[in-house]
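Appendix B. Chain record.
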Amino acid sequence: QCWGRNRAGQTDEPIGTFRDVSAGAKHTCGVRARSGVLQCWGSNESGEAEPVVGTFCQVSAGGGHACAVTPSRSIRCWGSDTYDEATPPPLTILDVSAGRDHTCGRVESGNIQCWGRNHFGQSRPPTP
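Structure tokens predicted for this chain:
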């Protein structure tokens, strides 16, 4: 169930069940419970409501982009890529979190890898 300000249809959730859901700035994305297929709704100014095709286990919606993790732990992103926030490095990602203009993922070692805008240091996680 979604609630809050609905200026772009981001709280008009579709019928059905989801195993994972994430609310972005003006869009929301979910992973369907049975199929693992992505579905996004709300704003589509940068293609953020048009997810990639495939099977996924986790999704994170950011400012104008989103990223999702496949069962084989690869990552796929779509939408705005002004700061390379939707261009992940070729890594095995366990889970992902998309921010306004950057994205971070937890890699197999447990460390965090980030990409995208780094205006305030948001793409440089502290070293352990």
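Further analysis of this model is presented in Appendix C.
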